[in-house]
């Protein structure tokens, strides 16, 4: 399936449980950058993904709060990723869900689950995905304590809350976890957080 970003066809504006989305454009670059910085990672890739790009589409989640429409989060889809076709491939109808973030002021309201429902719906209905994929931190980590990443003080493995949440939503790990997310540290500037790779049939 080919998606032409010059066309008006794109992510739908059908709201779900009070949450809506709009396709991000260059005009949204500042708000998206603010969100990624609030999240703590990923703002460096934004300019290339907000530019006219057939393979990566970002969206802004909006919700009416106190009578005003507010930008409460963001997300996106990868439609073709030649370097990692197991994560996104038009030919195989695999859509990668990316950049999900709900602003801190609106967390704890159930918006993350609704946002995921919207991302999955659009992956299936708009982009023709039969499988959706994503990646997330594999292990829990407390940077305030000098513990091996992913283990508690008794050396028991602790998966991240994000991974547990996705598993409850029906996602399954389908590849071995690997160090992926850069997290430079004073004693190890090349340190990377271990990622889990998940997928779900639509």
UniProtKB/TrEMBL annotation:
Top-level taxonomic group: Eukaryota
Gene3D superfamilies (alphabetical): 3.40.630.30
Domain N-acetyltransferase: 19-202
Pfam families: Acetyltransf_1
GO-annotated molecular function: acyltransferase activity, transferring groups other than amino-acyl groups
InterPro entries found in the cross-reference section: Acyl_CoA_acyltransferase, GNAT_dom
Name of the protein in its database record: N-acetyltransferase domain-containing protein
Naturally occurring in which organism (per UniProt): Kockovaella imperatae
């Amino acid at each position: 399936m080919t998606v032409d970003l010059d066309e008006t066809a794109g992510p739908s504006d059908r709201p779900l449980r009070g949450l809506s989305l709009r396709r991000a454009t260059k005009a949204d670059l500042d708000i998206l950058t603010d969100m990624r910085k609030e999240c703590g990672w990923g703002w460096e890739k934004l300019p290339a993904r907000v530019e006219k790009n057939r393979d990566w589409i970002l969206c802004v989640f909006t919700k009416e709060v106190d009578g005003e429409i507010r930008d409460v989060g963001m997300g996106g889809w990868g439609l073709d990723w030649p370097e990692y076709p197991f994560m996104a491939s038009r030919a195989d109808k695999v859509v990668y869900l990316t950049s999900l973030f709900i602003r801190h002021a609106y967390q704890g309201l159930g918006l993350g689950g609704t946002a995921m429902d919207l991302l999955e719906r659009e992956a299936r209905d708009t982009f023709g995905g039969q499988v959706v994929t994503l990646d997330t931190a594999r292990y829990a980590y407390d940077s305030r304590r000098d513990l091996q990443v992913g283990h508690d003080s008794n050396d028991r493995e602790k998966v991240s809350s994000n991974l547990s949440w996705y598993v409850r939503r029906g996602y399954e790990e389908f590849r071995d976890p690997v160090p992926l997310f850069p997290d430079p540290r004073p004693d190890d500037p090349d340190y990377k957080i271990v990622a889990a790779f998940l997928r779900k049939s639509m």
